[in-house]
Amino acid sequence: MALKIGVGLFTGQVPKDCGRSWHREYRDYLQLVKLSEAEGLDSAWVSEHHFAEDGYLPSLTAMLAAFAAVTERIELGTGVILAPFHDPLRLAEDFAVVDQLSGGRVIAGLGIGWREEEFRAFGIDPASRARRLEEVVAILRGAWSQERFDFKGKYYSYESVAVTPKPARTPPILVGGFVDAAVRRAGRIGDGYLSSRAPVERVGQSFAMAAQERSKAGLAGPPVVGVLHNAFVTEHPDRDWPMVRDGIAHQMGVYRGWGAGTDVAGAPLELRPPPEEEIRESTAFGSAAEVVSHLEPWVDELARYPDSHLVCRVHYPGMSAEPAARAVELFAREVAPALRDRAANSNRP
Question: The pTM is what?
Answer without folding.
Answer: 0.96
